[in-house]
Specification:
The complex is a heterodimer of chains A (about 250) and B (about 220). Chain A has about 250 residues and is mostly helical. Chain A has one domain. Chain A contains 7 helices and 2 strands; from the N terminus they run αααααββαα. A two-stranded antiparallel sheet of chain A has the order 1-2. In chain A, helix 2 packs antiparallel against helix 3 and helix 2 packs across helix 5. Chain A is globular. Chain A starts with 13 loop residues before the first helix and ends with a helix. Chain B is elongated, with a radius of gyration of 18 Å. The longest helix of chain B is centred in the C-terminal third of the chain and has 29 residues. By secondary structure, chain B is mainly alpha-helical. Chain B contains 11 helices and no strands. Classes of the chains: A mainly alpha (about 250), B mainly alpha (about 220). Chains A and B meet through helix 4 and helix 5 of A and helix 9, helix 10 and helix 11 of B.
Chain lengths: ~250, ~220
């Protein structure tokens, strides 16, 4: 098939995307469950105990993937919001709104598990460290996005206003991150980086990466499921939604 | 563009009580802190910069809500959108007028508060400079939030929720410069960073706020 034969915008219509998302959700759920079990088994039983931190370090199998997802989802949300704003694509804007609660949840989990890890390791539930603080600011940005969207009744206007806020936030996130970083730094350095490779034992790294993939699958599944609900809600006046729900009119 | 600026200034001048109220809010918030944490001079000296900066942030939130809301209520905003003058420039002149009535006033009162907090002389100078560099940033970033929340339910609370997280870097470098000055470190890096953010915001913020206004009045 030639490239030009593909209709790139086929699934941009909510009506066509709805069944596609419906097919993808169970697969993503299955992948998430399997990977989560494998990852937890790797992390809790196979990975060795850390020399310095003891078994307390094992919370990273939840903490690090959640923190990664919180940032990835913000970028994805800002990206789809921008697409929705620029090309006036309804589905992209709906996707952005369905990503936001997952992102906020991931940010919250990262902060919460971080507190549990900080208590035995640093001796404090919370410290005003760069990464913690910028993660907290990220949570505020998610909450701002959702409350702005909720405060505007006209959904199309709400989409566009929230999209602009997401873009402004995305421009600001690096600035906030570096400003907080220069302000104060206590958080341990990154154990995984592209420049140095990993400084962790292989089973630990494997467990963490598997868990990260599980979180990806979970977030995709939940966001798509939420997106399906958003589509039904916003397209409720259309014929196909009525047929889908079996409503007699 | 100059006409808008002059108009906004004249409006602010005719409603002097509003400007003064924000100013007194600033002074009151800053004065509450010593009452709350106790009058030890050493403690107050370390807190001074942060307290003044946070109070300035909150005080500028107060007046930001009205940046576009009044014009929206009486329909002027729609006329401005139809004007031949580019909308970002109009927005910029409104932000400039807002800064003159709020940020500049706050900066001029701040040295007095700094004396109350027993800051040394050169630190007061640094505080003044950082406020002069930083408060325009608050007006610019806050202008985006004000434009986004035009005509929205519960706009003032939402405005603070949207804008305050975005102002974190301004607070950090503004208060950080004064702390550096108190402990005898160089402050030029803080000035450069604040100025860099100001230049970037001067370019981008009016544009974003104009886009937000177009969305709001679609």
């Amino acid at each position: 098939m030639q490239l030009s034969d593909i209709n790139w915008f086929k699934y941009a219509a909510p009506q066509r995307f709805y069944p596609l998302a419906g097919k993808a959700v169970p697969w993503c759920v299955a992948v998430a469950v399997v990977l989560c079990l494998v990852g937890l088994a790797l992390g809790l039983f196979i990975a060795p105990t850390d020399a310095q931190q003891g078994d307390a370090y094992r919370i990273i199998f939840i903490h690090v993937p959640a923190a990664w997802m919180s940032m990835v989802i913000y970028l994805a949300m800002a990206f789809w919001a921008a697409i929705g704003l620029i090309f006036n694509a309804r589905l992209a804007a709906m996707l952005a709104t369905s990503l936001a609660p997952s992102g906020a949840l991931m940010t919250f989990i990262a902060l919460w598990t971080g507190a549990f890890w900080g208590r035995p390791t640093w001796g404090a539930w919370w410290v005003w460290d760069a990464r913690l603080t910028s993660e907290l600011v990220l949570l505020f940005l998610y909450i701002g996005f959702m409350s702005l969207h909720a405060a505007i009744d006209d959904t199309r206007r709400a989409d566009r206003a929230a999209a602009l806020l997401a873009i402004v936030g995305a421009v600001n996130v690096p600035i906030i991150y570096f400003s907080v970083k220069w302000w104060n730094t206590l958080h341990q350095g990154s154990s995984v980086s592209f420049a140095k490779g990993s400084s962790m034992a292989a089973p630990m790294l494997a467990g963490m990466l598997v868990m990260a993939l599980a979180f990806w699958a979970y977030c995709i599944a939940v966001s798509l499921a939420r997106l399906r609900v958003v589509i039904l809600e916003r397209e409720q006046h259309t014929q196909w939604v009525r047929a889908e729900l079996g409503v007699q009119s | 563009m100059r006409a808008i600026f002059v108009r906004d200034m004249r409006l602010a001048f005719r409603r002097r009580a509003d400007t003064a109220a924000a100013l007194f809010f600033f002074v009151i918030v800053a004065s509450l802190f010593p009452l709350g944490v106790g009058p030890e001079p050493a403690l107050l000296r370390t807190m001074a910069a942060g307290v003044v900066w946070v109070a300035a942030l909150l005080a500028s939130m107060l007046s930001l809500g009205r940046l576009f809301a009044d014009d929206h209520a009486d329909g002027t905003l729609e006329q401005l959108l139809l004007s031949v003058c580019p909308l970002p420039l109009i927005v910029l002149s409104k932000m400039a007028a807002h800064w003159l009535c709020s940020g500049l006033m706050l900066s001029l009162v701040a040295p007095l508060l700094a004396v109350q907090f027993d800051l040394p002389g050169e630190a007061i100078g640094v505080l003044l400079v950082t406020l002069l560099l930083g408060t325009p940033l608050l007006s610019l970033i806050g202008g985006i939030g004000a434009a986004l929340t035009v005509g929205v339910r519960g706009a003032s609370v939402l405005l603070s929720l949207l804008v305050l997280p975005l102002c974190v870097p301004v607070l950090i470098f503004g208060a950080g410069a004064v702390d550096a000055a108190v402990s005898g470190l160089a402050v030029s890096a803080h000035y450069s960073l604040l100025a860099a953010m100001l230049v970037a915001a001067l370019f981008l913020a009016p544009w974003a706020a104009a886009a937000a206004l177009r969305i709001a009045l679609d």
